[in-house]
Amino acid sequence: MRFKNAFRICPSSLIYLWSIFFNWCDCAQPIPKLFENATDFSKMKYPHEDVSGPKPLTTWIAAYEEVKAKGLIPHWKPSVVTNGEPSYASYSDAELASPEKVCSWTIAKCVMPDDIVTAPKGQMGISFDDGPQEATSLLLPFLLKKNQKATHFMIGSRIMDNPNLLKQAVSLNHDHIAAHTWSLMTTLTDEQAVGEIGWSIQIIRDNVGLIPAYWRPPFGDVDNRIRAIATHVFNLRTVMWSDDVNDWCLSDESAPTSSCLAGSGPQNSNELAKELNQIINQTKGPQQRDSGIIILEHEIAKRPVEEFIKAYNLAQKVGWIMKPIPDLFGYVFFPVRARFF
């Protein structure tokens, strides 16, 4: 993290820090205490990779029970997977779309006031999901060359596979690291959600001594129950996106074609480039839009990263001001650090 980011003085940063230290988030206990008793990375016994809803640590459950007793965790039932998509048989469309009720992003694109969905006018949020992976080693040198900071929503299991890429993103690029889980979160029970979010934070903390303050749910699958767990147990802010190009369709395994059916995502690099260029150039540039943009992008494979690099150069030429997610709003990267780092 850059020194100036750590101590940037602006009203929003002061409010955010005040909420950390004085518990305005209604968190059960100071966030470092949830993770301070861990051993080092080489000795920590993590769950098996990609296990949905792994068993949480007892400290996380205790924190969850405390905020639940305060009435801060809604009692909405988990969704169920129907034809590969989450669905809620027990609730009406109005309840799913209501900020006062379920507020499902997946079903109704419902957002809450604290969700980050778009950027300020003229700005573009630079972020990537699903790292660190082999393609991260292509992305990081480009970002460093351009002196461009980015947000990486990293998966715990991928960090287990590629811990050095996480460390490079922090130590060389000074990038912003955020949490990313791996399941359809609304399908999990409360305890499973606590485990999946908690372990995602734990492995970041154990590797680089940083405790994330932001997270992004896979496929954007979030509702008010999951938001409440992320916010009140772990003090995480939910980050979504304004534009989606489905770049994940171009996985390494599907090269040179696509993992997606025609009409549901780009079939090749040229189609992905066209979609990115349309978003960047839409309405003749950044100053013609009422708000900025956050494009959902991934560092899972070579082709999506290559097309981001090309699109980045176009975005610079058009005039977008590109920043990692916290910098869009003047927020600090990591309000809390692990104590012994």
TrEMBL record:
Single GO biological process annotation from the record: fungal-type cell wall biogenesis
Keyword Transcription: no
Signal sequence annotation: 1-28
Any single Gene Ontology cellular-component annotation: plasma membrane
Membrane topology, record value: Lipid-anchor; GPI-anchor
Enzyme class: hydrolase
GO molecular function, one term: chitin deacetylase activity
Catalytic activity annotation: [(1->4)-N-acetyl-beta-D-glucosaminyl](n) + n H2O = chitosan + n acetate
Subcellular location: Cell membrane
Domain NodB homology: 122-323
Pfam families documented for this protein: Polysacc_deac_1
Domain of life where this protein originates: Eukaryota
Main location: membrane
Protein's recorded name: chitin deacetylase
Lineage, broadest ranks: Eukaryota, Fungi, Dikarya, Basidiomycota, Pucciniomycotina
